[in-house]
Amino acid sequence: MTGQDITRRQSLPNDHDTANNTDYRQSTNSAFTNGINSSSAQDQRDGIDVQRAPWRRLYSFITYTPARCRYDPEQPLVFSNWLNVLFACAGCITVANLYYTHPILNLFARDFDVTDQEASYIPTLAQAGYAVGLFLLNPPGDLLRRRPYILLLVWITATLWIGLCITTNFQVFLVLTFLTGLTTVTPQLMMPLVGELAPKDRKATALSIVVSGLLLGILVARLLSGVVALYIGWRYIYWIAFGLQYIVLILLWFFMPDYPSTNPQEDWLSTMKAYPWLLWDIVRLIFQHPVLAQSCLIGLFSSAAFTSFWTTLTFLLAGPPYRYDSLVIGLFALIGIGAMSWGPVFARTVMDKRQPIFGVIVGTIINLLGCIIGTFVGRSSVVGPILQAAFTDIGLQTSQIGNRTGIYAVEPLKRNRVNTAYMLGVFFGQLMGTGVGNAVYARGGWVHSGAVNIALVGFGLLLCFVKGPHDSRWFGYQGGWNMKVRHLKEERNNEDVTHVSDEKPGQLPESEGNTTKTSMSKPAST
């Protein structure tokens, strides 16, 4: 790919999520760049040879931006299909880090000479690290330039991964598992960026491609890990994952464009002062925006049913009347992989032309239908679990695309915080689904756990109707239920014309630019 392959356009990025050209030039001097430059200048004043600081040379290399990827405020880079696919592949490979362990816990117990219960701490710590990373490392994406921040996190994760490949100490393995889970949040930094850069008339399509990559990573990790570990050993899958992560790092280094921060800070000190308010903002946003709270709850119940199904499915297929071995059970992931092709097609043909809640309703209904079929057919025919696996994956993917499309519009300058709030809801849903699903299955079996899944998804469907798509209140139906998005391209063109004609050169927009530099410096917004 050459520099010409990344096309350029003259207009500002859609949604006007950041300020005008003057603000863009200022925002490129982000906290990352200012921090390193100020340190280097101080070293020169103190007579210190910067060349003796290897970490600075390494940092400069990792965060270096090739000429083809540098930001030009006069000609912003277009979010192309190539970049969309690149982000999806990066998310797929990165999120897989959290799921390689699931099918091979018995091998961990054998090789580290620990009990099965102790081996179960490995995926628990991976998910715990991921949750902590979502809360602590995701929100700064609203302050920092995304390219250097994402590259640093990918590099840290891939480098720490070497320890997982070679260590023979169980305690060290647990610590490294937590740390790699902590830094495996780069897909959740990419999702808000896609929501910011994708054109309005194909925002749902762009998000669906990245969501498909994430779900594909979850399913492929389990399948690949089980097969590789069965035939050549579990450490080989870790070495494969190490190589894949460095391939992603290299591709992002060469082709990921550098975008300005949406809330640029003057220096590291300003960034650190703003950081605590970022965390508080996550909670505040949930109670301020009904759409976000609604999406968080729907995501919680949908993900709880999803996790409960895939957890208890292993018990069903391993017992009577099926008695499948682990390899056959692992092949059920192929059903979900096939379902991944649904999302982009449905988003492009339907969701881009409808209100976001329409996709959430359709996805939740498909999910509910799958739960009903699987629950009442699963004990007598394997067709039930197969159909439920397909419908559950399709339904969850569709509802997630709708939820993300809706929430990214509520606070354009705070998309990482909005995304963090939503993903914390999804994460707690996964924890709830695992615990409740296992407990109910142990007491009542497949039908009882399936009934719980039906109740969870059904409650999520009810939440879709507590407010209309055009009503900004917590409850109500003002504006009716018209799901069509009318005159989208005309509205977008009018916004571009208005934006260009109303602003003077060098003047920040009152609605966005004037708040960009001050909104995070003090808790005025709270």
Secondary structure blueprint with pairings:
Layout lengths: L20 H7 L3 H15 L8 H9 L18 H15 L9 H7 L4 H4 L1 H16 L9 H21 L3 H14 L2 H12 L5 H29 L2 H22 L12 H21 L1 H29 L7 H6 L1 H7 L2 H8 L6 H22 L5 H25 L7 H30 L1 H18 L24 H15 L10 H4 L10
Subcellular location: Membrane
Keywords: Membrane, Transmembrane, Transmembrane helix
Protein name: Major facilitator superfamily (MFS) profile domain-containing protein
Describe the model.
The chain is mostly helical and 526 residues long. The protein has 2 domains: 77-264, MFS general substrate transporter like domains (Growth Hormone, Chain: A); 274-485, Growth Hormone, Chain: A (Up-down Bundle), CATH 1.20.1250. The chain is built from 23 helices and no strands. It has helices at 21-27, 31-45, 54-62, 81-95, 105-111, 116-119, 121-136, 146-166, 170-183, 186-197, 203-231, 234-255, 268-288, 290-318, 326-331, 333-339, 342-349, 356-377, 383-407, 415-444, 446-463, 488-502, 513-516. Mean pLDDT is 78; it is low at 1-50 and 487-526.
